[in-house]
């Protein structure tokens, strides 16, 4: 573990790892949780991933994922219930604090906004980018995510100075929430990894061979519709339009829409990707968009294949697929 | 033989249908797909060859898991959200709706939808989200608006439906407007992939062609939100 010289993604990973490590300790100390050791081990492994993920190698990370899955699947996690305020106390406190509570909640988006803008402004004005200790400000990768992490830390510090909870209270409150989310905290990350294994295993080629074998190659509308619907179907399976895009574009988009029918590659690519998002709206495989909010909002059917969030999205997703197919067909051969 | 890997997908779908633990299903599905892929590509069924295929899959899985840690980073926000909830943030969000005269569920969700689309189109996708804004602010506001038009609190089924629609509004708004921003991951992926096919694509042109879809999403989901208000009103009238 080398000490980072700039505020980048790795600093955010260390902070997040320290937080999960603290949750591991607090879980083990929670005598009311029957599964406290299981929770402690699970959060400790997540902490290891954040702090030492780059040091333990690919095999080490693979073993770590398997261990997390085994704990979740066979031992299970308990839900710690650290003390919090009652609804009546909250009503009283909300009146005391007033609308300043919104100000505290809005620090995160405000800081994210300002920091992201400070990255974009030099590009727009063609001035040199901002640096910090000679390194690019906020690092090179996923700068808005780093900005978000900084916003979270600033908001937490200000809120603690204002509200004066005990030093551990926010982290116990955080544990109340993270325990209620449980293993679903890392499901989106695990699903993204599954997508990588699917691609490496040749799932993409198998699917594209399956579709291109029966396609009516000279019917422009049929080709466009198979491309857009294929994007959506593939995204439903993979949970991610990014995984579907290179495969469907290699199988149908480039050889047929661009090559054979002389469509515009830019329009095809832009609207093709957007067609995939209809699939994202309809699948539990896109866990961070469809399962995580169901858990956060305490929906009773959160683990159903078509939970309430997905059911609310299906009509819009289906209509948007029709719209994108029509737009692609009307625009791609015209420009 | 090539189609053997599709069994991995079938395994994942089957595991989900049987309601097994999804995390376990995903990891077992990944390991099985890796092995099936190796067999489809000609690996023999001897222990040595299978062992090598297993290690290769383990590496792919571990590497992908490590590079995708940014997805899990969002939970850093939980101590802040927990603290503000403890001090009455959700109660205050409900109170705010009480003070705004004409607020309806669909109206609140539509206002949120528009703000979310505009900020995402400027590249600020992480500014709002399920943990950042939907749970602490949007959902309590929508539920307060729901109760406002009723003499008695709404039944749980209706409240759950409203909460699900809050999450849906966030997803739909961000999906169909983030590509309007030139430096978002999707646009960069399109540019990179097309370059691989020998086609040079300017990020700006990809962004421009994303605008018609963004506008259609606003019209379609906006109309659905207004219809959602009408269906909630009908439900209220039928229930009272």
Describe this entry's structure for a reader.
The complex is a heterodimer of chains A (335) and B (240). Chain A has 335 residues and is mainly alpha-helical. Chain A contains 15 helices and 2 strands. Chain A has helices at 9-29, 36-52, 57-75, 87-97, 100-125, 143-163, 169-181, 187-201, 203-212, 220-238, 241-260, 265-280, 287-290, 292-296, 308-332, and strands at residues 131-132, 135-136. In chain A, a hairpin with a 2-residue loop joins strand 1 (131-132) and strand 2. Chain A starts with 8 loop residues before the first helix and ends with a helix. The model of chain A has no long low-confidence stretch (mean pLDDT 90). Chain B has helices spanning 6-17, 22-40, 47-67, 78-86, 89-99, 105-121, 130-148, 156-178, 185-196, 203-208, 211-239. The relative contact order of chain B is 0.08. The model of chain B has no long low-confidence stretch (mean pLDDT 89). At the A-B interface, helix 1, helix 2, helix 3, helix 4 and helix 5 of A face helix 1, helix 2, helix 3, helix 4 and helix 5 of B.
Distance between the termini of chain A: 52 Å
- What proportion of the residues of chain A form beta strands (DSSP E)? under 5%
Q: Report the β-strand fraction of chain B as a percent range.
A: under 5%
Strand order of the largest sheet of chain A: 1-2
SSE order of chain B, one letter for each helix or strand: HHHHHHHHHHH
Give me the secondary-structure topology.
The complex is a heterodimer of chains A (335) and B (240).
Chain A: H1 9-29, H2 36-52, H3 57-75, H4 87-97, H5 100-125, E1 131-132, E2 135-136, H6 143-163, H7 169-181, H8 187-201, H9 203-212, H10 220-238, H11 241-260, H12 265-280, H13 287-290, H14 292-296, H15 308-332
Antiparallel strand pairs in A: 1-2
Helix pairs in contact in A: 1-2, 1-7, 2-3, 5-6, 9-11, 10-11, 10-12, 10-15, 11-12, 12-15
Chain B: H1 6-17, H2 22-40, H3 47-67, H4 78-86, H5 89-99, H6 105-121, H7 130-148, H8 156-178, H9 185-196, H10 203-208, H11 211-239
Helix pairs in contact in B: 1-2, 2-3, 5-7, 6-7, 6-8, 6-11, 7-8, 8-11
